[in-house]
Design brief:
By secondary structure, this protein is an alpha+beta fold. It is about 55% helix and about 10% strand. It comes from Macrostomum lignano.
Length: about 1300
């Protein structure tokens, strides 16, 4: 028994126990367990407490009244704290927040009713926990995670904000930082996530899964790295995420919290604590009610169950008789449920041995046994009455009523042993009839102490144990030891254990021997009570005499009264207690007056139809114990009450004990304690048949769900295994219909979601909803279900309409898919006929259409679209606002596709239609903003690019309604933009080349660079538009390529014209140097040609290279013309040099005069310097290497062709002048070496012209060398110049006409003639 609390704290907590009709009750008048027959009379309607009022009629069992008359609205009979008011103490407040939330708006009477209802529920729950026989705790439920609270969400946001700002000290790469930054901005800062956290539907695992799914897409896009797998990167990122998420918290603390959770299988003590918290029951109240209900007594609990089941059967029979129109299917279902409970109880094993009853498994029935129906049980009872002539005796097997006792005997010591010497060896033997004999250790007679234990097993309720004392024989020939004494013990299992001195019967010893023995006889579990009684009956126990009676449990529903003789294992007489009732007898039966002794006897009897047995005990306590034991065995509804005289005796004893235990307690405290016990006893001993268990269970389930939703785990409405186990046991034990139970639960879930905005798992709702219709359905259940179904349908439609806010980022996982499945079930007309797919589709379509409106309205309200449209904001600000709205719309639809598209897999076309409606609403605001834009303003193109890039990548929205509307809106603007750009580029070509200075700018001139940039920018802009309509896109591409070709050709013509003009201005002699301007013009043509492919080639089609080929050919020809022009000019200079050298030819006018001079290479050096300077200029200012090489090859080849023509063709038979030989030899050698250094290939350098010219020059040089050698070896020879001077002199001395002219010529040339070393 648990210790009861008694202190001033009790007084403070017990204000609810008093009522207005209660006065100060003396403890001597309190009856904690029993009452007089007058106390059992029915209470008046005003006095009946909650749920103890009688039903209007038995028919209410079949068809209940409206649930609005439930227990929650019915108060107890006015209970007010009279003692508190009498003592002047203020009223105490509600002891728990849950009670405060419920009872703040209730009157004091209603609060008292609520409190007593909770205590009554706790009594029923305690009985379910103490002796479960219908249900077991489930172990296959999904493990629940810790949920994130709003305070924790703020901490998580701060931790990630610190990491994003770089203050966490966690080393991370840029990719991980970007992922965390996106996670923080999109998920953690989302208002939908905050709302989900407030609703208790977001767990730590949800936060982790969202981040993991995000980084999986990012890691998948990363390039492969040798030696580093993507799985390694993913695990590393998740480890860093956990570090950021956890912060400075100890990870072991989270592990301990996850381990110590309510999802585990709970013990009975843990279940008691759990429902004390659920029902707000104080610990000392639990202790009092635990003791009053005798929850530690399994026999009492089994008897209580039998009484409950019999009461349910009786109520069913009454209802069947009262309602003639009750359908038999309901009656059969109800009786089958009771039969199943009886079978479960009968299947609980009854242990015959001595195992402790507290260790028996009482929760799970043995389902392999065939359950007995109600009719079979009745037949079995009738056969027991009529089948035996003795009456009441059933043919039980011997093993079923066998009793197995364990007896422990400990021999401690013997005293007064003087008849033998002190050194003599003595010992004891212990013997049970028909059992093995045990012997103690040997000890000296002076110290005869052993402390030896012997264990015996017997089936005799009244065994006999013999203990003998022996002295060891000292004679050599003695065969037996000497017996000094013996004692015979007759133990019983009801006798108190302890040491006891027994007087031994001495045989050959004159000493007064005493032996100390401890005897303990354990009571077997199937023996419920035993003792000596006077018994007399009609058929059994016919003679009135004293018998040793044992109350034996054969099974959970069968008990027998058996009488045993001493040292007998088989009962002498056996009587079954089936259909018996026990009660007190207040007077001695007349038939026993003559046979009773003069001693006072305390009578009671067991009565059965056609038979009765009278019993008499020796004292009142023994009688009450017997009556209570038989009362538990019979399972009768009527509880026997002891006579008034016995009650007064017990009360006086209780009062005296209370005075002794608490002498300082005041009369007020005693009255309060008495009142407390009276109230609790009223609840403990309430008649369960009069309780509205459906209404009570409705309240219990509501409070349990409220407690579950407030625990630290993300349960989503799923009860813990312990809670579910107790509720299952409650429904089975007290007959709460499963259909009604799940309707109530569904109603509670709807209340939690609608009133408190808590997140409930739709799968759980689906489970409760699907349970309706299994078995019979009552009218009240049907009406209640229709109301709940309507509420559920409205809730589901609202959830689908606002699916982004009820299930943000797809959390809770699978909730949206479960909602769609539940909606399909709710739309069914009945539980058999499936709903038409078109009807489900219509409902989902309606929700998604409304969802599009809701989603866009929230975005519009967030962006202040109405204010922007109606205000006088600048056009650029309006455009930025609408672009921002478009970005938010795209983000919303991307989230829908990523997190919700899978749930709408069966309605994917409706989700596409939802997106089109969403965009159509955006199109209205977009059109308004575009209309406010001034003409020829291109700020709206980024909006088109943003929307078109999203739409063209979406296979469902590509070429949809909004996409086509977007094209129709922006196509005229694109055409207008291209027209204006074409006109602008054409004007820039005309004006630019007119003002062009031909200074280097990039790869060409300033005008060409600007032209190419504009063309490239225009084409890139049009390309970036990614126009979705292929015909218009091809038209734009063709137009842009044609325009680019025309512009490039026009620029090339203007450049060629300027080139020709500038080249004509240059010198035609060796002082000519190719100017920078000419090089820039040359580069401009090259640059224009290099851009032909990118600007003039179409993206596709048969004519994709049409403009590219035409323009390329034109610019190629233009480039060749410029090269030829430059080469022609260079060759013109070379021709001038050759003309100067031609003056030394024989037969020329001044050939004789020029032949006088000494041969020099001045002309050759000048030309070589000219070539080197221009080569350097070309190399420095012309950027196209291939073109430079081509120019050099052409120039080189042209020069040697000219030289070949000059030497071989024109002077094939004439010898060259030494001066000519010197100059040409120098020119040939330098040209070959210089052009070789510029990269001219050997094939070009060693052309035929070069070989012919080189051969001729070498021959001329050889001839000249021979001639000079002959002249130097001839004596008196004169030099050619000297001879020429002499001839001129002779001519001058002659008198012929014209001599003066010749003399003057000679004198003028004398200055040019070299001085000869020879004689004149």
């Amino acid at each position: 028994m648990m210790r009861e609390s008694s202190s001033s704290e009790e007084d403070e907590n017990w204000k609810y126990a008093q009522g207005p009709s209660m006065s100060l009750i003396q403890p001597s008048l309190i009856q904690p367990k029993f009452g007089t027959p007058e106390d059992n009379r029915p209470l008046s309607p005003q006095q009946q407490p909650l749920h103890l009022k009688l039903k209007d009629s038995p028919a209410s069992i079949a068809v209940r009244k409206n649930s609005s008359t439930s227990a929650l609205a019915v108060p107890f009979g006015g209970c007010t704290p009279a003692i508190r008011r009498a003592s002047g103490e203020p009223r105490s407040t509600s002891p728990s927040p849950s009670i405060l939330s419920v009872s703040d708006g209730l009157s004091e009477t209603d609060q008292e009713a609520d409190r007593r209802e909770r205590l009554l529920l706790y009594v029923l729950v305690m009985r379910c926990i103490a002796y479960p026989f219908c249900a077991k705790q489930p172990t296959d439920l999904a493990q629940r995670q810790l949920k994130v609270t709003p305070a924790q969400l703020l901490q998580i946001r701060d931790r990630f904000q610190i990491f994003v700002s770089g203050g966490s000290g966690i080393v991370a790469d840029e990719a991980f930082s970007n992922a965390v930054r996106s996670y923080h901005g999109v998920f953690l800062q989302s208002e939908q996530v905050a709302a989900l956290v407030r609703s208790g539907g977001c767990s730590v695992r949800d936060f982790r899964d969202v981040f993991k799914s995000n980084i999986e897409m990012r890691v998948r896009c990363l390039p492969e790295i040798d030696g580093l797998s993507k799985e390694t990167v993913l695990s590393s990122w998740m480890a860093k995420f956990d570090q950021i998420f956890r912060g400075n918290e100890d990870p072991r603390r989270a592990q301990r919290m996850a381990a110590c959770q309510s999802e585990l299988v709970l013990s009975k003590e843990q279940l008691y604590d759990l429902f004390q918290a659920v029902l707000n029951v104080r610990k000392y109240e639990h202790q009092i009610m635990f003791n009053a209900c005798q929850l530690d007594n399994t026999d009492e609990q089994a008897a209580q169950i039998r009484r409950e089941l019999d009461g349910r059967l009786q109520a069913l029979d009454e209802a069947m008789m009262a309602m003639k129109n009750m359908e038999s299917i309901y009656y059969d279902e109800a009786t089958a449920a009771v039969d199943q409970l009886m079978s479960n109880l009968e299947a609980v094993p009854v242990h015959i041995g001595n195992s402790d009853t507290s260790e028996r498994h009482l929760g799970l029935p043995h389902h392999h046994q065939t359950p007995l129906t109600l009719k079979q049980k009745c037949k079995r009872q009738i056969r027991g009455l009529a089948g035996e002539p003795e009456g009441g005796f059933l043919n039980y097997s011997r093993a079923s009523i066998q009793l197995n006792f364990c007896i422990e005997v400990v021999v401690c010591e013997v005293r007064n042993l003087k008849c033998v010497p002190g050194n003599r060896i003595v010992y004891c033997t212990m013997e049970l009839d028909g059992s093995e004999k045990f012997q103690t250790d040997q000890a000296e007679a002076s110290r005869a102490m052993w402390d030896t234990q012997a264990d015996f097993t017997t089936s005799q309720p009244l065994p006999t144990i013999k203990v003998k004392l022996f002295a060891e024989s000292s004679r050599m020939l003695s065969l037996e030891d000497k017996e000094l004494g013996k004692v015979v013990i007759k133990p019983t299992c009801t006798k108190a254990n302890g040491c006891e001195w027994y007087k031994m019967i001495s045989k050959d010893c004159s000493d007064d021997l005493s032996i100390k023995i401890i005897v303990h006889m354990e009571k077997p579990s199937n023996l419920k009570h035993c003792g000596w009684l006077w018994v007399a009956g009609r058929h059994l126990f016919k003679n009135w005499k004293k018998r040793y009676i044992c109350l034996i449990q054969v099974s959970q529903y069968n008990f027998v009264m058996a009488s045993f003789h001493e040292r007998k294992s088989e009962p002498q007489e056996v009587m079954s207690l089936n259909d018996c009732t026990v009660d007190y007898l207040f007077e001695t039966p007349p038939e026993l007056l003559s046979s009773t002794s003069t001693a006072v006897h305390y009578f009671f009897s067991t009565v059965r139809e056609g038979d009765s047995v009278t019993y008499a005990a020796e004292d009142e306590t023994s009688r009450q114990l017997w009556v209570q034991a038989i009362y538990r065995a019979t399972g009768q509804a009527h509880k026997p009450q002891p006579p008034q005289a016995a009650v007064q005796t017990v009360n006086v004893t209780t009062a005296a004990a209370s005075v002794v235990q608490a002498p300082s307690s005041s009369s007020l405290t005693s009255a309060v304690s008495a009142t407390r016990r009276t109230v609790l006893d009223e609840l403990v001993y309430a008649d369960l048949r009069r309780l509205d268990h459906a209404a009570l269970f409705r309240r219990l389930q509501c409070l349990t769900l409220e407690h579950r939703l407030s625990d630290p785990y993300c349960s989503l409405g799923w009860l813990s295994p312990g809670q579910l186990f107790v509720l299952d046991e409650y429904c089975a034990r007290y007959g709460v219909r499963g259909c009604l139970r799940h309707i109530y639960y569904l109603e509670n879930l709807l209340d939690a979601q609608e009133a408190r905005n808590l997140t409930i798992d739709p799968t759980l709702m689906h489970y409760s909803f699907a349970f309706y219709g299994i078995g019979t359905v009552l009218q009240e259940e049907r009406a209640l279900f229709d109301r709940v179904k309507l509420r559920l349908r409205q809730l589901l439609m609202q959830q689908l309409t606002e699916f982004r806010f009820y299930f943000p980022f797809g959390r809770p996982e699978g909730a949206l898919k479960g909602t769609l499945s539940l909606l399909e079930r709710v739309l069914m007309k009945d539980i058999v006929t499936p709903v038409d797919a078109a009807e489900v589709r219509k409902a989902v379509q309606s929700c998604l259409e409304e969802a599009a409106y809701v989603n866009y309205c929230r975005i519009a309200d967030f962006a202040n679209i109405e204010e922007m449209v109606q205000s006088n904001w600048p056009t650029d600000r309006k455009m930025k606002c609408i672009v921002h709205v478009a970005e938010m719309c795209i983000e919303v639809l991307q989230q829908n596709e990523e997190h919700h598209a899978e749930a709408f897999a069966w309605f994917s076309d409706l989700l596409v239609e939802h997106a089109e409606i969403f965009w159509s609403m955006f199109a209205v605001d977009m059109q308004t903003v575009l209309e406010s834009q001034p003409p020829d303003v291109w700020d709206s193109f980024p909006l088109f690019q943003l929307l078109n890039d999203y739409l063209r990548c979406d296979a469902n929205l590509r070429h949809g309604k909004f996409h086509k509307q977007l094209q129709e809106t922006f196509a005229p603007q694109v055409v207008r933009y291209v027209d204006l750009m074409e006109s602008s580029i054409g004007q820039s070509i005309h004006k630019g080349f007119e003002r062009e200075t031909w200074t280097p700018n990039g790869g060409g001139c300033a005008t060409s660079s600007d032209l190419l940039w504009k063309l490239e920018a225009l084409q890139s802009f049009i390309t970036d538009l990614h126009w979705p309509e292929p015909v218009f896109a091809e038209h734009l591409d063709s137009r842009l390529k044609s325009m680019a070709a025309d512009m490039l050709e026009a620029a090339g013509r203007r450049t060629a014209t300027a080139f020709d003009t500038e080249l004509k201005r240059g010198s035609s002699w060796v002082d000519f140097l190719l100017s920078v301007e000419l090089c820039v013009m040359f580069n401009t043509c090259v640059e224009l040609k290099s851009k032909v492919f990118s600007l003039c080639s179409m993206s596709s089609g048969e004519t994709m290279y049409e403009y590219h080929a035409r323009t390329g050919e034109f610019l190629e020809g233009l480039q060749s013309r410029l090269v030829n022009s430059i080469v022609d000019h260079f060759c013109g200079v070379f021709e001038m040099v050759l003309a100067r050298l031609a003056r030394y030819d024989k037969g020329a006018m001044f050939s004789t005069l020029f032949s006088i001079a000494k041969p020099t290479d001045e002309i050759g050096k000048e030309y070589v310097d000219f070539c080197q300077a221009n080569i350097e200029q070309v190399r420095r200012h012309v950027y196209d290497e291939s073109l430079v090489l081509s120019l050099f090859e052409i120039w080189y080849s042209r020069q040697f062709r000219l030289l070949q023509d000059w030497l071989v063709k024109e002077r094939a038979s004439d010898s060259l002048h030494p001066c000519q030989i010197t100059c040409l030899s120098f020119i040939i050698k330098k040209l070959h070496s210089d052009f070789e250094l510029q990269g001219i290939t050997r094939d070009v350098l060693e052309i035929t012209c070069f070989a012919a010219v080189n051969y001729r020059i070498q021959a001329e040089e050889a001839t000249l060398s021979m001639r000079l050698g002959e002249a130097s070896t001839s004596p008196g020879s004169r030099s050619p110049l000297g001879s020429m001077a002499g001839s001129i002199s002779s001519i001058g001395s002659s008198k012929s006409p014209g001599a003066g002219g010749i003399s003057s010529i000679a004198s003028s040339l004398s200055g040019f003639l070299p001085k000869s070393g020879g004689t004149s």
